[in-house]
Design a protein that fits this description.
The protein contains one helix and 23 strands. The protein has 250 residues and is mainly beta.
């Protein structure tokens, strides 16, 4: 499921893509996909959607006309996660086949592959500035890679079971991971240091996300609950914002 950047539309997956209006709940249109949908994502401008599924394909759709623009072919097994870069020019896909791929979002050309240490990848995400990609999967490590060529930058080590979900904070300084070990962890992107561990779920965590200001996180679990947590104190957030302003003025 994904919400458009303007907050007016929601798209859900299943045996196809269903576009609905947020305000009314009215179904706008349904697009066929020849498999069960595993991941969907809006482009930053809200004009395109990328979807993926068990047919080993990722498809890019035009939102206005609800027509398919292109198909990204190259994976040999289910594609579990997709994401656009912040400029909308690249797409990253993660598959259980043993790898992720980065694509040109305009031409559909495969640019390069990412493997990290995972044999099955369940989650991929671009950093807000588009310079890093995090990939996570069936090993106990999430890997942060350079988005321009795929070189591994740092590993995030600490989970005891596979990592099912990963997300960058809005400021790009932290990464949140959720695991089948029933915990979520917050990491420093530069050092790879574990900052916080969130415990409380009674089953494995399936999804994680940050609030828009980075001060809270939400975790979804197979225990049929979602939990909201404090990701940092107000003083910490204010300190990070000051560092960003000072860096921008240099």
């Amino acid at each position: 499921m994904a919400i458009s950047p303007d907050g007016k539309r929601v798209i859900t997956g299943g045996l196809g893509l269903l576009f609905s209006e947020v305000a009314t709940g009215k179904e706008a249109v349904r697009c066929d996909h020849l498999s069960t949908i595993s991941s969907v994502c809006f482009s930053p401008d809200g004009q395109r959607v990328v979807s993926s599924g068990s047919d080993r394909l990722a498809k890019v759709w035009d939102v206005a006309s609800m027509t398919e623009l292109m198909t990204l072919k190259g994976h040999t097994d289910n594609i579990m996660s997709v994401a656009f870069s912040s400029d909308g020019e690249r797409i990253v896909t993660g598959s259980i086949e043993h790898g992720a791929k980065v694509w040109d979002a305009v031409s559909g050309r495969e640019l390069f592959g990412l493997n990290g240490r995972n044999s099955q990848i369940f989650s991929v995400a671009f950093s807000p500035d588009g310079r890093r990609i995090v990939i996570a999967g069936d090993v106990l490590v999430a890997t942060v890679c350079d988005a321009s060529g795929g070189k591994e930058v740092i590993e995030l080590k600490g989970h005891k079971r596979l990592i099912s979900s990963a997300a960058f904070s809005p400021d790009g300084r932290r990464i949140l991971t959720g695991s089948w070990d029933q915990t979520a962890k917050l990491w420093d992107v530069v050092s790879g240091r574990e900052l916080l561990t969130f415990k409380g779920h009674a089953a494995f965590i399936t999804s994680v996300a940050f609030s828009s200001d980075g001060r809270r996180i939400v975790t979804g679990s197979d225990d049929q609950t979602a939990k909201v947590w404090e990701a940092a104190s107000p003083d910490q957030v204010a300190g990070w914002q000051k560092e960003e302003r000072d860096a921008a003025q240099r």
